[in-house]
Specification:
The chain is an alpha/beta fold. It is built from 7 helices and 9 strands, in the order βββαββαααβαβαββα. The chain has helices at 43-50, 93-103, 111-117, 133-145, 163-178, 190-193, 214-220, and strands spanning 5-14, 17-27, 32-36, 58-63, 78-81, 151-154, 182-187, 199-204, 207-213. A 6-stranded mixed sheet has the order 5-6-7-3-8-9, with helices on both faces. Strands 2-1-4 form a 3-stranded antiparallel sheet. It binds adenosine-5'-diphosphate (2 copies). The site of one adenosine-5'-diphosphate has 11 residues, from strand 2 and helix 1. It comes from Actinomadura napierensis.
Length: 221
């Protein structure tokens, strides 16, 4: 399967709020695509529609050329970090991942590798309830990587990180893209993405206001 996300003409209304108003863009393999825009621009809603968690009123969202809901084994195609708070606080990091691996029909084999990958090997036996936000983000990303998907989608992964955490996250995203994965990463701060992303999608009021390579976009600014 190709490691791509395509959204085309997404529209979504919540009551009187038009959350998505023709959102369209594509995410390619081997690149970090930054999805930047102010709070309320429609980034999270777009990601939820891509994952089939929200239904769009119009338009379509394709993961590797297919709607998420039609993928036979979706977690093997796309991993997502939408909400780092969705953890069982009393479980250790390792048990959290073992439980997720089990519920996804995966063996325990990759748990150690993903903990290592996100830099949590040393905290594997600590309870996730005592983790900092940055450690929770890492644990959420480890969970998204369990099935080794070629596509990753991270909503505001820089939130709550200290400068070391931000540096780590940047290098980590680049290393995932260097493996050929397609990475879509959102932020409300251009500064978090401009040195990290290969490509930027700038969103505002439910639509794309700019879509370009980073060099091109910053030269125009
Ligand atoms: P972003 O992720 O860019 O901050 P969101 O996609 O979260 O933007 O929100 C887009 C708009 O849709 C905002 O006005 C937000 O308040 C609204 N919205 C999002 N989810 C819901 C919901 N479940 N119910 C009502 N309004 C929502
Ligand atoms: P809930 O409302 O209880 O969180 P959801 O159906 O919204 O249940 O989603 C369950 C969890 O699975 C959410 O935390 C969501 O972010 C996560 N999720 C959904 N699709 C994926 C995916 N492809 N990769 C990783 N996590 C996912």
């Amino acid at each position: 399967m190709e490691a791509t996300i395509e959204v085309d003409g997404l529209r979504k209304r919540f009551g009187r709020t038009l959350a998505l108003d023709g959102m369209s863009f594509a995410v390619r393999p081997g690149e970090v695509t930054g999805f930047v825009g102010p709070n309320g621009a429609g980034k999270s809603t777009t990601m939820r529609v891509i994952l089939g968690l929200d239904a769009a009123d119009a338009g379509r969202a394709l993961v590797g050329g297919r709607p998420y809901r039609s993928l036979r084994d979706p977690l093997r195609h796309i991993g997502a970090l939408l909400d780092a708070a969705a953890l069982q606080p009393s479980r250790t990091a390792r048990n959290h991942l073992l439980w997720l691996a089990h519920s996804q029909g995966l063996g325990a084999g990759r748990v150690g590798a993903v903990l290592d990958r996100v830099g949590l090997a040393g905290a594997a036996r600590r309870r996730a309830g005592g983790f900092s936000l940055g450690m929770r983000q890492r644990l959420g990303i480890a969970a998204a990587l369990l099935a080794d998907p070629p596509i990753l989608m991270l909503d505001e992964p820089f939130n709550g990180l200290d400068p070391d955490g931000i540096r780590w996250m940047r290098g980590f995203l680049a290393s995932l893209a260097a493996e050929g994965r397609a990475i879509l990463v959102s932020s409300h701060l251009m500064s978090e993405l401009q040195d990290t992303a290969d490509h930027l999608i700038v969103a505002g009021r439910g639509r794309v206001v700019a879509d370009a390579g980073v060099g091109e976009l910053l030269a125009a600014a």
